[in-house]
């Protein structure tokens, strides 16, 4: 009773085709696959960010790990040089 037989799967497929149409089903499957790849890469990025080797003793960042605020500095600029904040005119189309 718990497993679905081939007849059950056929009924589910017919209902999906009736609801969404034969053209939409491949597009939806592609979209789900693309979304799952994005989710997987983001989860991998989060896991890499939380590596235990990045934090030194006492919870302080290690000396060889650069701590930067991406909103105020661009990589390669001196610490005293701040990037100007975009004004309201930058958002107008």
Automatic annotation (TrEMBL):
Subcellular location: Cell membrane
Membrane topology: Single-pass membrane protein
Family that this chain belongs to: Belongs to the TatA/E family.
Gene Ontology BP annotations: protein transport by the Tat complex
Source organism per UniProt: Pseudonocardia alni (Amycolata alni)
Gene3D superfamilies, alphabetized: 1.20.5.3310
Keywords assigned by UniProt, alphabetized: Cell membrane, Membrane, Protein transport, Translocation, Transmembrane, Transmembrane helix, Transport
Alphabetical list of PANTHER family matching this protein: SEC-INDEPENDENT PROTEIN TRANSLOCASE PROTEIN TATA
Basic and acidic residues: bias regions: 39-53
This protein's record includes keyword Protein transport: yes
Chain's role: Part of the twin-arginine translocation (Tat) system that transports large folded proteins containing a characteristic twin-arginine motif in their signal peptide across membranes. TatA could form the protein-conducting channel of the Tat system.
Primary residence: membrane
Protein name: Sec-independent protein translocase protein TatA
Subunit field text: The Tat system comprises two distinct complexes: a TatABC complex, containing multiple copies of TatA, TatB and TatC subunits, and a separate TatA complex, containing only TatA subunits. Substrates initially bind to the TatABC complex, which probably triggers association of the separate TatA complex to form the active translocon.
Gene Ontology cellular-component annotations: TAT protein transport complex
Spans annotated as Disordered: 29-93
Pfam families according to UniProt: TatA_B_E
GO-annotated molecular function: protein transmembrane transporter activity
């Amino acid at each position: 009773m718990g497993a679905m037989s081939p007849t059950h799967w056929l009924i589910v497929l017919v209902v999906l085709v009736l609801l969404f149409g034969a053209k939409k089903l491949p597009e939806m499957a592609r979209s789900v696959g693309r979304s799952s790849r994005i989710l997987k890469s983001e989860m991998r990025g989060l896991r890499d960010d939380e590596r235990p080797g990045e934090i030194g003793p006492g919870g302080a960042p290690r000396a060889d790990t650069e701590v930067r605020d991406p909103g105020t500095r661009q990589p390669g600029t001196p610490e005293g040089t701040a990037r100007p904040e975009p004004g309201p005119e930058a958002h107008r189309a």
